[in-house]
Amino acid sequence: MKKFLVSLGAAIAIILILFLLFVFGPFGGRSSEEIGAVNTNFRLFGSNDKVLVQRFDDPKVANVSCYASFAQTGGVAGSVGVAEDPSQFALNCIKHGPVSIPADLPDQEQMGSISASLLFKHFIITRMVDRQTNTLVYVLISTKLLHGSPANAVSAVPAGN
């Protein structure tokens, strides 16, 4: 009976995690949208490997959007959400109108994360403010260490018109 309850608890925990990932999406409830995907490798069983492109809008700075692309493993494991995706990604942030940096904007703030593995790896996006040059700097890192340091990408958006 005890083993059954432990198994039931584990099953409920997994279902809850999957539900939360589905409801809140890859950026933890932040304003994000999947732009598209490019298939990179055919898989006979399950979905194909692909590169996904997502856009997220800075919730505290108007007219700034960042685009992140990252690899997603397909196959059976990828289709059910248990494959660990490689730490390969890119980041590009743009302004699509006048940008002003609010005076009370923190010098550094984590914006959200992209889940790349059910439990183990995430991509984390952080906004930094370079007040000397009036520029917003966005950094995307992987929580999986590669040879002692995380993979990373950076993009900068100058304030003004």
From TrEMBL:
One Pfam entry name: CreA
Database matches in InterPro entries: Uncharacterised_CreA
Cellular component terms per the entry's GO annotation: cytosol
UniProt cross-references to PANTHER family, sorted A to Z: PROTEIN CREA (PTHR37952:SF2), PTHR37952
Protein name, entry field: CreA protein
